[in-house]
Amino acid sequence: MFRALSSTTVRWRPIEGEGLExxxxxxxDAFVGAAIRAESVVIGERDGAAYGVRYRIDCDAGWRVSSxxxxxxxxxxxxxxxxxxxxWRTAEGTSLPQFDGCIDIDxxxxxxxxxxxxxxxxxxxxxxxxxxxxxxxxxxxxxPTVDVQRYTCLEDGKLYRFEENxxxxxxxxxxxxxxxxxxxxxxxRRLSPETI
Length: 196
What we know:
Elements: E1 8-14, E2 19-27, E3 36-46, E4 49-59, E5 65-72, E6 77-82, E7 88-90, E8 104-107, H1 115-121, E9 129-137, E10 145-155, E11 159-164, E12 170-174, E13 183-184, E14 188-190
Parallel strand pairs: 8-9
Antiparallel strand pairs: 1-2, 1-14, 2-3, 3-4, 4-5, 5-6, 6-7, 9-10, 10-11, 11-12, 13-14
């Protein structure tokens, strides 16, 4: 359904306010301990406060997150690791059982993390709706929480519906041949390759 991953760079702008995300995703050599790495820099503003964040997400070949690091330019950060089966721990090895069952992550202020469940699940239209527990990280506090979300394939390999489980937000997300979001209604718009 999606093409084999090659090194790809994309950029998104928020629809409202100032900001930009520059993301590179690439396959890794086996010795690195992960099969896929996404690295990004995000600048923006929320509620009148400007922020600058960089993140790195490592996944196995099945698009299960093995670790992620999120850091602000002013020195705050979060680094967590996963066994890929929904069990999380700090970088120092402390278990985080409150996140048991969260295989995917959702980092605020980026459409990229929608790609993780879309690629991992390989959803097709006949699969129906899937409910997922997500490890959600807001960029204002870096205090992770559990968020329940739903994904439904509307058009195989091209269009997916994202819904908050409490029905507070719904968006139909068109994706490209890599499963990366093209436009995120009300939130983000991808820049064309010519502008990168």
